[in-house]
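Z., the sequence and structure:
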Amino acid sequence: MHHCGPCHIELHGDVAAVETCCILLQQMTATVDGVQGHRQIVIPLRYVDPFEKRDGAWRIVHRIVVYEQLSDEPLLLEKAEGQRRLGPQFTQAQRSKDDPIFSILHAMKPA
């Protein structure tokens, strides 16, 4: 998952320099030092893009991905059945129709 934030644009006629700040979040299963487990990767990065205007449309000439740092840590999953790492004001995400967004969307549909 990428989260893109603010961008800075320097415009000079039909060319521009654009810098966009992002955070990459990735969860995966990997073997580190002989131990297999769930990992969480966090990479703050920037997209550095020269743009040019071609046939009236702005296009990226090429992309440079600049990373600031890399965090690779064990992913802390739920402690045990019924125990939570966060307080009751937080709802655990569901990768299914049980996720809260679906009940809100269902309630918005006309009867």
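The first helix runs from residue 100 to 108. The first strand starts at residue 2 and ends at 12.

Let me know what you think.
H.
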